[in-house]
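Might you be able to check the backbone structure tokens below? Thank you kindly.
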Amino acid sequence: YSRTVKICGVGESKAETMVKDLIDGQTNPTIAPYAKNCEVHLRVTAKAADEKEAKALLTPVLRELTNRFGANIYSMDKDTTLEKAVVDLLLDKNLTVSTAESCTGGMLAARLINVPGISNVYKSGYITYSNKAKRKILGVKKPLLENKGAVSKETAEAMAKGAAAISKSDVAVAVTGIAGPDGGTDEKPVGLVYIACNVRGKITVKKYNLSGNRAKIRETTVSCALILMRQCILKYDEEVAGGKR
């Protein structure tokens, strides 16, 4: 009997270090790590005479993994994808969402919209590939684009602000970056990506330096955006529960 512990926001090498002692000392159950795109899955398997006994063997191991990885575990259901976990979180917290994308060209919206039930929370998506579109649709100021550039922390933040304002959504995620193979410079190389997440006015912007070809960079960017969205929603909810807002 097996369960898959799905982890995001922790790198492959760090995750393996965190469970090395369990793997080194394992007999039954066993733990097998698998690296996914921006995720690590730990397949925990127990052998026993029947399913009930196997589940009982798994329980303490799953509890220990939960203690170690905490909120970085987004599911223990083999059929739950990262995007489904994010949509389930939006539904659970009764939050609406919008997306603003440059280099990913709608891929983030597509992954979210692939999840059944998304129509209850998804408001709108904006593909603002050109600077003109960023200005006209999202309200990003021309001086900001000229001084900081389309691929910058400031532009990502402005895109997230604009998307939330025009869609009236609780959560807005914005992506801007250089997917390549052309367009990179020494200062801003191919693979440089900024992702901003706006949760009811609280904006977090993260910088990423990704590797791979154009398709890989875009795919990884979407996964990073989903992870950041999840982290920001959980943080916001924790702060609200703690009376900080």
DSSP finds eight helices and nine strands in the chain. Helices lie at 12-24, 51-69, 82-93, 107-113, 131-138, 142-148, 153-167, 214-241. The mean pLDDT is 96.
